[in-house]
Design brief:
Order of helices and strands: EEEEHEEHEHHEEEHEHEEHEEEHEHHEEE
Number of helices: 10
Number of strands: 20
Distance between the termini: 67 Å
CATH architecture of the largest domain: 2-Layer Sandwich
Shape: elongated
Largest sheet: 7 strands, antiparallel
Strand order of the largest sheet: 2-1-5-6-7-4-3
CATH superfamily of the largest domain: GAF domain
Radius of gyration: 26 Å
Structural class: alpha+beta
Helix content: 25-40%
Amino acid sequence: MAALSKLHRCFQGVMPSMLATASRDGTPNITYLSQVHYVDEQHVALSWQFFNKTRQNIAENPHASVQIYDPVTFQVYQLDLEYERSETQGSLFDSMATRIDAIASHTGMTGIFRLIGADIYLVRAIREINGLLLPSGAAEEEIPAAPPSLRTELSTLSAVARRLGAARDLDELFAALLSTLRDALGFEHAMVLLPDEGGQRLYTVASLGYGDAGIGAEVALGEGLIGSVAERRKTVRIAHVESELRYGRAIRSATQGADELASTREIPLAGLADARSQLAIPLVAQERLLGVLAVESRRALDFEDWHEAFLDVVGAQVASALDNVMLRAEAEESRDLGKSEKPSSAPASPARKTRIFCFYKNDDCVFVDDEYLIRNLPGRILWKILKNHHETGRSDFSNRELRLDPTLGLPPIKDNLESRLILLRKRLELKCTGVRLVPKCRGQFRLDLDCPLELVEKDSS
């Protein structure tokens, strides 16, 4: 009997599987599954969602059969199964539920398209069904072996560890992470998201392959793949996004008559609109969510089992490095309190057009020349800096004074101020040339202006 682990492509959900059961009197029933989950060399798991007839049959007769398909060779395998148990909690259940929640969020089925239980089956036999889709052996000979360079996990992990360990601040940390993923693993699109001060949304602070447009993009906790991974703190890999979304949309169409779905909307995928493979990893340190690392590709089946395991390890290293950098920054800011340079002024050059900054107090939103720039905590920080400069001519500021300012509303513990300043600096570079926040030394920065400013404050947008 072939080993289940050798059939790993069949368990990625690219092609639907057929599950056959029979009642006590032998009446058959066949249903389609979006995915069969590999558990170990002797077990698979099926998601219990809508299969009332299947569940009734299994209660009467615990034997079943499922056909799975290799999406590359189109080889068909039949697994003879025997039902053992259902799980409604634990690591396996959480992993399967997070994946389903992510698809449900993308297709407007949150709360309806959900996992009830993970049904565990013993695999009694594995049979190759030859000639069903292609002549036996025809496709296998045409598939080139993966080049050895793709299997350098340990050397790549060593490179990641060295570069993360050498990072002196968050800017260097994110740059080291993304460049290593690109150079060592060939990833073309990746992003790092961190939770905001309320802990209910995540914002993009660094990205690879999206240009500057992705910086500052937000996703709510529980929304889509990234939000679901953040909420449940579980890694999720989707090998064929189109198939998963089609399945979710089909379920939604079948239940569209429900009143509660009348106003639901389909949330667009973050990042690539045509992504076919996605992988998201929670960054967790000491049971605290510090962020999410997400990678995606336009190619189906682009991320394998070893990619997921590898990035789980990398994610733990990134989370630890994030935590250490934040602790080090707070310690150094406290030690250097009172040693800052005398504030200096840098008068704006009259040669450039005046930039008009408008701050909306009701939602802490900042516009520049009628174009949205930033909101929430980074918006409040920018407005404090601009007003202080306007009123006093001051240009030098410190993280410490921002941290101690009660009007900004930073959380008392682990406020991650440095990441907000990185985001603010990048948004200014993108949307407002002539206004820059320039790092000077640890915990200090300077406001540089190449244009005069006009500041406007309003109650509502």
